[in-house]
Design a protein that fits this description.
globular; FAD/NAD(P)-binding domain; Glutaredoxin; 3 domains; 8-stranded mixed β-sheet; about 550 residues; alpha/beta
């Protein structure tokens, strides 16, 4: 590739190879984005992690490129968010075309007061390189390249692994194994487990091209364009003047033939014009799939990312949902390892993330059905909707060029404490128990955004002088600590005091004076009350950690 050279990470012999089977608290299989995120999150919780990867470099080709606002907020906590935003291409606006005309445009982040854009586009190899750099900064991460897991065997309170290396195989034991080894997941196969779902009879070509262009930084999607009739096309801009173009091919297309330059170039010329100057960087052909495992936890083996669930690319739900997997898992596993929560807390990872996976699979399946109609009647309906969308707003809600990734609202989570006060809002975007925390601009000692003060541990967001100083200290000193973040009011010793710079925090949390909102370490709302009650807060923390 002209714009990127893959780094080579050297194989280093581990002391484990010269000892008897060494036991580690956590082993992660796979040093892709999700495996690295899991390791970094656990290390930031003080958990030592061994990461095993059979390769010696990062992703070859751009692969996953669209990172949603929620994923960026998670990556901020992992210490790489700003690098991704600085290198990548942020966007909020998309356009949908039908044949040779614009059907409509949309804005995924129409309101101000958010730190991150709706999406940032960045090639996966850059993201992985940044995550490797971050992992290398953390003493609790042992990242082992050229280390292929060839056997995984549960042994009661541990998992026994055989790891093949350039120096030969060795045995490793793990208290907990996290499988982040991709859609074909060798670990899943070793355990005789299956991923169930649907494979769609259609194929798409990905072509990454290096090109300087005046196209705006937006998502453009064409249905039945004149340059690729009866099919669909997607255009995204990435870093370094690299553009991602997806061409629908149909089920009968030969994947190996379609990746050849002599097949790709005519499609690009038809789309971009005979005078466009570009170079092909990378190409691949993929098939739509929507699949997941029945359960993401199997004893002491836990699956995350594509190893657990697989969706078609339109909607950017793959990597984004994978980051939410590890965000959900890390704090729970850290508490279990510390003896502060029972193992059944990990069952909530399965309950919450299979729910989120089903939501993603449903949206991905609907998008696939709209993009690739399977009958003449379906196509006639789709085309009529697109024609109506040019003039009528109601029809735009029926268009599905890939419902773009949004975080799951875990309203049915077993860890939630239901509202005790009836006057809290419950509509879309409300901070109900299970909702991911909304950001807002603030003024405070640790950053200028509300989410800078939340996450990593339990936090109680208090509006005004809601929490007495003695209770602030008691919460901070508990076995499972909870920091108090106070919005406005006087100076309460021990609390982190911030100012609601534009009044958006109060609006987004319905934060009247006295209101308190309990947030989990992964920034999901656990409970909310109109007045502070120490017993209720402690009970909600116990409930959210399965200690009740």
């Amino acid at each position: 590739m002209k714009t990127y050279t893959n780094p080579i990470y050297p194989y280093v012999r581990s002391p484990d190879q010269d000892a008897g089977p060494v036991r580690h608290p956590v082993v992660v299989v796979g040093a892709g984005p999700i495996g690295l995120a899991a390791a970094i999150d656990l290390a930031q919780h003080g958990v030592p992690v061994v990461v095993l990867d059979e390769d010696e470099t990062v992703s070859v080709g751009s692969r996953a490129i669209c990172y949603a606002k929620r994923a960026l907020e998670i990556l901020d906590r992992l210490g790489v968010g700003q690098r991704i935003v600085d290198k990548g291409v942020g966007w909020n606006v998309g356009r949908v075309f039908f044949r040779d005309a614009l059907a409509y445009r949309f804005n995924l982040l129409p309101e101000a007061g958010h730190r991150r854009p709706a999406f940032v586009n960045l090639q996966q190899y850059w993201l992985e390189e940044f995550l490797v750099d971050r992992a290398s900064e953390l003493e609790d991460i042992d990242l082992r390249w050229s280390s292929k897991v060839t056997r995984a065997t549960p042994r009661g309170e541990r998992v026994e692994l055989t790891v093949d290396t350039p120096d030969g195989p060795y045995t490793l034991h793990a208290d907990w194994l996290i499988a982040c080894d991709g859609s074909r997941s060798p670990v899943r196969n070793m355990l005789g487990l299956e991923s169930e779902g649907q494979v769609f009879r259609d194929r798409f070509l990905i072509a990454d091209i290096h090109m300087q262009s005046s196209f705006p930084t937006e998502r453009w999607f064409w249905f039945d364009p004149p340059f690729h009739p009866n099919q669909s096309v997607l255009l995204h801009r990435q870093a370094d003047d690299v553009w991602r173009i997806d061409f629908q091919l149909g089920w009968d297309a030969d994947p190996e033939e379609e990746k050849k330059p002599e097949r790709i170039l005519p499609r690009l010329r038809a789309m971009l014009g005979p005078d466009a100057r570009f170079e092909i960087e990378w190409a691949s052909v993929y098939t739509f799939q929507c699949r997941r495992m029945k359960s993401f936890r199997h004893g002491r083996v836990i699956f995350a990312g594509d190893a657990a669930h697989l969706v078609s690319p339109f909607g950017a739900r793959g990597a984004n949902s994978g980051f939410q997997d590890t965000d959900n898992l890390a704090w729970k596993l850290a508490l279990v390892l510390a003896g502060k929560a029972p193992q059944r807390l990990l069952d909530s990872y399965d309950a919450e993330r299979t729910f989120a996976a089903d939501e993603n699979l449903l949206n991905s399946t609907r998008a696939t059905d709209f993009i690739t109609p399977k009958s003449r009647v379906s196509r006639t309906f789709r085309d009529a909707v697109l024609e109506l969308a040019k003039k009528h707003a109601f029809a735009r809600g029926l268009v599905n060029s890939g419902r773009l990734s949004v975080p799951a609202v875990l309203a049915g989570s077993p860890l939630n404490t239901p509202d005790a006060d009836a006057d809290f809002p419950r509509g879309p975007g409300a901070m109900i128990p299970g909702a991911p925390a909304a950001d807002a601009p603030v003024r405070g000692p640790r950053g200028e955004w509300l989410l800078d003060h939340l996450g990593g541990e339990f936090a109680l967001l208090a509006f005004g002088d809601a929490v007495p100083a003695g209770e602030v200290a008691a919460l901070a000193g508990a076995a499972i600590p909870c920091r108090v973040v106070q919005v406005g009011g006087g100076a309460t010793p021990g609390a982190v005091r911030i100012e609601d710079a534009e009044g958006l925090a109060a609006r987004r949390y319905d934060g009247r004076v006295g209101t308190v909102v309990l947030l989990r370490p992964d920034q999901h709302v656990a409970a909310r009350w109109r007045a502070f009650d120490a017993m209720r807060v402690r009970a909600a923390i116990a409930h959210a950690t399965c200690n009740d």
